[in-house]
């Protein structure tokens, strides 16, 4: 069978989704796919474009995975379609097609204003646009955005982040005219102005004037007003890119766009259009969700399916300049006879409006400003009977009326068309948390706004509740922490006698040991406490696969003198330890037997080393780059800060290991965003990122606060760590902890920045206590014969080394011998052991 | 090893054992893991059969239901201290040995493989 030739014009979000969807379905390779894209980059997540200004790496926005079955030509513009010959012409030759899919998106609409072509005037659509804006903003002070809609406000925030004093000029009498009504717009304006963004509403821009350097300097408004700005972003709307179709005489929609039917097919049966360039039954959509639905539809049709696009969901929720704004359904109340219910709370500054059917029984749409917690439930209820009385739904607390009240057929996740029944079925089938629900239903994997409802459904089903730690304790780690702290319990036996049952296990004992250590209540090998530690903490070293241990001294910030390096080399040589540089910028010495540990540590402590806590659920390292001391790009002393932080938090026990890093400039050589807390230097101070990790499920940390002084930075990290230690679950890294937190990063910020729970003073005291009471665990062990007594191979033969630990050589160093080399690892006879009395 | 009954071997004073923790001992050349709980003494092979490593004495002691247990420090499987049966992997077990305390001294007598 001859393969069909499929040509896709445009490698944007929808074009890429279409190719992925087709390749998923076209199992016998019926189509040979060629993608022609004008931008120099493969498809990226345009919705998250502004994240580039938050320090997100362009690679993170990538949506494209290479596929050998798909030919991708980037930097290639299609210039014409020859429908008779069935070829498209490009800047680099012709491509024949049997089917042609147009996914050319939109272009920014630039109104015909004098001066719109001046240097310093930009649009806001592509990565190249953002790079140009960033470059021009350097050294400039004032920015303006023409257009106060969704995109305009997003651009305004970007200019703020670039350090420009920002104004917005909007022709309509309110901000976001397409989404919110007059009252919502007024509240939004107050929020936006408080952030220092000046709003000029109900007025057109009549001209842009250059300054002495020839680039833009001033906006002239239709009412005669003037706004100074040396950088201008035009965000006055978008126009579908239908120029190829127009030139090929294909019918267009009334307001432009390639006219297609519900199958996304144009008047030419071989030509399809998807995404923003398509006018489905005459209407274009400027959101990615409807575009994705079109992509799936055409992919299905091309392999013989019968899909049609569903009615587009134009609901939007976003956080603009820190303000929640949501609109959904018939937000403007255009349905004949409909009723409005509005709710305004000047104190909490929340505005909400619901649009109801004429009998007040059915929800048709609504607008929320200031608090959009109710959005997921409301959005899912459009077209249905109201799940509760209107006021109960709108009052901020009404968010909790939630998902449990929804009928089974309701689409809980509109992005992925997942209903309540689908989710309940998945829960019954064993999905017990949000990640599991995401994995098996795809709900919550796109815009994420339905995630709170997923949680509510889990709760309603009685799963996903924080469960007891283990069979011995019915309370969670956090509750245990509070019990121990408030009741001042100091031993495991009294704790389990009073609040638990049985003898404990390898889950609860180390948790309690860690809590006692976090509370700074003495050495971890003292008395009964020694028996709670897992083997790593018990021997203050890391157990390896062969039963030997590794030794990792602390090297704060990764800075080490030649003398100390020599000591490490000598110790490793004298004890024949395998050495390796770790990812945390220190040196791992492996292959020590338990009885050697005190001898090794005596040498290290004498040379000024201390425990690196590599064995503990505790602060590991604060990695650094060389920073401004040496690096020609560095803007701050990253090494100095890393050392100070590592010394401050060394020995701090936590629910899981904690890693950190400091980079001396935005080039981020220390990989700080892969850490639980990461710091990146800026010209003005430090940016703090939280919740990153490497490992099995790598995750970049999120920006938490910007341009901090060192003092403010340290105070935030203090609180972040202490709050984490108090409230996280066992073995929960900071990323998962934040994700599981109701309200996520915002909640965290409310607690540790705004002190919403009144906890900050307590957290500060706890950290001060930790810093003041730190002492090196290994130094303490070496001073105490009782603690040293635990480091023996055999209780009755302390002079006999463990015969099962055997080595072989690899690349000049000792490594564990594999089973063949040690024979069958049968114990060897050694004569009669002595009794130690 | 032959079928002859073995002798009791004195290993250490009871005071060398911390409640809730194990130690390793060498008895007739065999590595034995000795445990003391609040009420009892137990002895099993020190060898973790899953990883072929001699580490069971370093596991955390506890209980599962009414069964006294130790969890392998490497991969956390729990073993019944009384019988040596692994509670997480069917069919896996370690040998248990006889242990007693006489005049303040802990004594062990090896048992043959079942
Ligand atoms: C800053 C910003 C924020 C946004 N936020 C949201 C949001 O929160 N929610 C939401 O739903 N949507 C949002 N959008 C809109 C969303 O990005 C678009 O709906 C989506 O990208 C449309 O996908 P598309 O493939 O149709 O168009 P595009 O992603 O624009 O892709 C079209 C591609 O085709 C290429 N092309 C055009 N003509 C040719 C030609 N002749 N030859 C070759 N290639 C060509 C273009 O260069 C482009 O790469 C946002 C957009 C921006 C700019
Ligand atoms: S992050 Fe910046 S300061 Fe640090 S090494 Fe890299 S370029 Fe230099
Ligand atoms: S509604 Fe967008 S991911 Fe569920």
Written account of the structure:
The complex is a heterodimer of chains A (837) and B (114). Chain A is of the alpha/beta class. Chain A has five domains: 167 residues, FAD/NAD(P)-binding domain, CATH 3.50.50; 116 residues, 3-Layer(bba) Sandwich (FAD/NAD(P)-binding domain); 63 residues, Orthogonal Bundle (Arc Repressor Mutant, subunit A), CATH 1.10.10.1100; 57 residues, no CATH class; 232 residues, Sulfite Reductase Hemoprotein, domain 1, CATH 3.30.413.10. Chain A has 24 helices and 38 strands. In chain A, the strands form eleven sheets. In chain A, strands 3-2-1-7-19 form a five-stranded parallel beta sheet, with no helix packed on it. Chain A has a five-stranded parallel beta sheet with strand order 9-16-10-11-12, with helices on one face. In chain A, strands 21-22-25-24-23 form a five-stranded antiparallel beta sheet, with helices on both faces. In chain A, strand 10, helix 3 and strand 11 form a beta-alpha-beta unit. The longest helix of chain A is centred in the last third of the chain and has 18 residues. Chain B is mainly beta and 114 residues long. The radius of gyration of chain B is 13 Å and the shape is globular. Chain B has a single domain, classed as Rieske Iron-sulfur Protein, CATH 2.102.10. In chain B, the strands form three sheets. Chain B has a six-stranded antiparallel beta sheet with strand order 1-11-10-4-3-2, with no helix packed on it. Chains A and B meet through helix 14 and helix 15 of A and strand 1, strand 2, strand 3, strand 6 and strand 7 of B. The complex binds flavin-adenine dinucleotide (FAD), iron/sulfur cluster and FE2/S2 (inorganic) cluster. The site of iron/sulfur cluster (SF4) has 13 residues of chain A, from loops.
